[in-house]
Structures are given as structure tokens and as C-alpha cells.
TrEMBL record:
Single GO term (MF): large ribosomal subunit rRNA binding
InterPro entries named in the record: Ribosomal_uL10, Ribosomal_uL10-like_sf, Ribosomal_uL10_bac, Ribosomal_uL10_bac_type
Name of the featured protein: Large ribosomal subunit protein uL10
Family as reported in the entry's similarity comment: Belongs to the universal ribosomal protein uL10 family.
Organism annotation: Aurantiacibacter xanthus
GN (gene name): rplJ
Subunit details: Part of the ribosomal stalk of the 50S ribosomal subunit. The N-terminus interacts with L11 and the large rRNA to form the base of the stalk. The C-terminus forms an elongated spine to which L12 dimers bind in a sequential fashion forming a multimeric L10(L12)X complex.
Record-linked CDD domains: Ribosomal_L10
A Gene Ontology biological process term: translation
Function text: Forms part of the ribosomal stalk, playing a central role in the interaction of the ribosome with GTP-bound translation factors.
Lineage: Bacteria, Pseudomonadati, Pseudomonadota, Alphaproteobacteria, Sphingomonadales
Gene Ontology cellular component annotations, sorted alphabetically: ribonucleoprotein complex; ribosome
Length: 171
């Protein structure tokens, strides 16, 4: 890489760090190309991104961002996962690490809040933004459904009683 390519890489990472909601730092302990491709595909499916970046360039890109505190995690063969959804990158990384022991969760950051490995795992256990939206819609919809059921119940009870009398008279 020449200087201009390094400057472009730092600028791109800095832009990413200023736009995302969470960054997870992982350690690559010998992932094959196929496994790394699988990890990237799972990240993409979850709405996250994964990149192996040079630690020195990543540390430069972290300056003047909320994620400056994770610079100490950038030692050895590391990879960065990020997403705008505060849970997606952590969830995808932890799920992949469960099935593959060659990926280690080092830590991360949720905005300015620095997370250790346990913090990233706890974040991954939380429901995603889409799951929370679904629960809220269900909670908002539940009272309306109950009101309709209460309103319809007397009419259906009357219909069942009338039907029972009609069947009794017919017999």
C-alpha cells in the first residue's frame, strides 16, 4: 500500500466510525478464506459489515470518534465488525464465534461506551431493533384485538344459544 491508499483507507474507516452504532473487535486465530467469506455473508445478512484492517490504520481512523477507546483492543490479527443497529454486529459475531473457535471476541464499543468481551456477549443477547419494533406493534395491537373480541362475544354467545335451540326444536 502506498501513502495515498493508506490515507484513503483511514478516511473510509473514519467515515464508518462516525456513522455506525456499534463496533465489535474480533481476533482471527487462523480462519480460512472460506470461513472468512462465510462470516462476511452472515454479517451482511444481519445488516452488519466485517473488515480486516491494519491495526495502525484503524487506530488512526479511530481518532476524534466515539470509538477511540477500543484502540487498545487492536493488537494481533484483528477484524472489525460494525452496524448501525446497536445489536446486529455483536449478535452476528457472537453467533459465528459459537460455531467456530478460530474467531475470538475481544471487545467493542457501543457509541462512547467501551465494552469488554462479556459486554459484547450481553449486547448480542438483546433483541434486535426489528424484534423490538415487532414487539411494540404487537403490544399496541393487543388492546384493540381484545376490545373487538369483547364486543363480539355477546353476539356470538347469542348466536350459539339460538343455534342450540334451533337444533333442539329440529330434533
Amino acid at each position: 500500500m502506498d501513502r495515498s491508499q493508506k490515507a484513503d483507507a483511514v478516511a473510509q474507516l473514519n467515515t464508518v466510525f462516525n456513522e455506525v452504532g456499534v463496533v465489535v473487535v474480533t481476533r482471527n486465530l487462523g480462519l480460512s478464506v472460506e470461513q472468512t467469506t462465510d462470516l462476511r455473508n452472515k454479517m451482511r445478512d444481519a445488516g452488519a459489515s466485517y473488515k480486516v484492517a491494519k491495526n495502525r490504520l484503524a487506530k488512526l481512523a479511530l481518532k476524534d470518534t466515539d470509538y477511540e477507546g477500543i484502540g487498545e483492543y487492536l493488537t494481533g490479527p484483528t477484524g472489525l465488525a460494525w452496524s448501525t443497529d446497536p445489536v446486529a454486529a455483536a449478535k452476528a459475531a457472537v453467533e459465528f464465534a459459537k460455531t467456530n473457535d478460530k474467531l475470538e471476541i475481544v471487545g467493542g464499543s457501543l457509541g462512547a461506551v467501551k465494552l469488554d468481551e462479556a459486554g459484547v456477549r450481553a449486547l448480542a443477547a438483546m433483541p434486535s431493533l426489528d424484534e423490538l419494533r415487532g414487539k411494540i406493534v404487537g403490544l399496541v395491537n393487543a388492546p384493540a384485538t381484545k376490545v373487538v373480541r369483547v364486543i363480539n362475544e355477546p353476539a356470538s354467545l347469542l348466536a350459539r344459544v339460538t343455534g342450540a335451540y334451533a337444533a333442539k326444536d329440529a330434533a
